[in-house]
Write a structure and sequence with these properties.
The protein is an alpha+beta fold. Helices cover about 45% and strands about 10% of the residues. The chain has helices at about 10-25, 55-65, 85-95, 135-140, 160-175, 180-195, 200-210, 215-220, 225-240, 245-260, 260-275, 280-290, and strands at about 30-35, 45-50, 70-80, 100-105, 110-115, 125. Helix 5 crosses helix 7.
């Protein structure tokens, strides 16, 4: 997709701008965004850092994010024109690691190409509304969401006190029939696959089921970034009482990572770590997310003992 929206093609730069919020999960402001393409990933990685950070700090963060064999990088600065020199300086250093195929500044609705002697449509500045681009519409149709700000990501996984109380009441009324098994887990997840929202009783049973390691691994193996399962774990994370929220939050983080939504994965992982900082499953999901291991490169089935899964190579 980076190639299809190449800044060297007519209209390519505005398409990139429309793509960024849907890959990040929010509309960036006062940020330096790096779009990093790697041949073995269908979508580019998008990394966002505060544009106010010193140049050395930005480079320290970004150089760790660029994988081997990256085929291209596009930098977009969201902020005032005073940051032009900083964007250029970052670009010159990153060029030593991978081709920087475009560098831009987006401020007050105007996208300006900062590549010297460039003749693209944005060389003199062009008005762009990221929400109205073709790529934005295509990504929205796949179920991706672009929230107004990074802070709004946390609303997707923040506790819903009213829903938590309903789940707590359902937990109190459950029969003491033991922990649901894998077959029970499959039946609990099934309604979400059909697009149905779980009842409070189903959420309560799912919370109990996820305390069992075999059930948790089964749920993990069923979660590969499918839209409805992604929505399921976000919903359960919001509705689970705090003592039960760790596993669904970690599953939400894993699902977001599978979908390439790095910022949402980190937000969900923060919630999981706050609830169960020493949990093995939370640690392994954190390892995968923090190490930026591409989900599609992992060898399945993963270990049933929640040890660190193997990958052909680190990204």
């Amino acid at each position: 997709m980076l190639e299809s929206a190449s800044p060297r093609r007519q209209g390519g730069s505005d398409q990139l701008l429309g793509m960024v919020p849907y890959l990040l999960g929010y509309h960036p402001t006062e940020a330096l965004v790096a779009i990093i393409k790697k041949p073995d990933r269908p979508l580019p990685r998008v990394v966002s850092l505060p544009l106010s950070e010193p140049t050395t700090m930005l480079l320290n963060h970004l150089t760790l994010q660029i994988p081997e064999k990256a085929s291209g990088i596009v930098l977009i600065g969201y902020g005032p024109a005073t940051h032009r020199a900083k964007i250029a300086a970052v670009s010159e250093v990153l060029q030593l690691l991978a081709p920087v195929v475009g560098r831009f500044l987006y401020t007050d609705g105007i996208l300006t190409c900062l590549t010297p002697a460039c003749t693209c449509s944005a060389a003199e500045g062009v008005a762009v509304d990221p929400r109205s681009t073709r790529l934005a519409a295509e990504l929205a149709m796949t179920g991706r969401v672009a929230l107004p700000s990074r802070q709004d990501l946390h609303t997707l996984i923040a506790a819903d006190p009213i829903a938590q109380a309903a789940t707590e009441a359902a937990l109190g009324s459950l029969d003491a029939t033991g922990t649901p098994g894998p077959a029970d887990l499959a039946s609990l997840i099934a309604p979400a696959g059909a697009g149905e929202r779980l009842t409070a009783d189903q959420v309560a049973r799912l919370c109990l089921a996820l305390h069992d390691q075999d059930n948790l691994v089964t749920a993990w193996h069923h979660t590969r970034g499918r839209r409805r399962h992604h929505e399921l774990w976000l919903d359960v994370t919001r509705r689970a009482p705090e003592q039960h929220a760790g596993a669904p939050a970690a599953l939400a983080a894993w699902s977001a990572w599978c979908r390439g939504q790095d910022a949402l994965a980190q937000a969900a992982l923060d919630r999981a770590r706050a609830v169960t900082p020493d949990d093995g499953f939370t640690r392994i999901v954190g390892y995968l997310v923090d190490a930026h291991l591409p989900a599609h490169r992992l060898r399945w089935p993963l270990t049933p003992h929640l040890d660190a899964p193997s990958s052909g190579s680190h990204s």
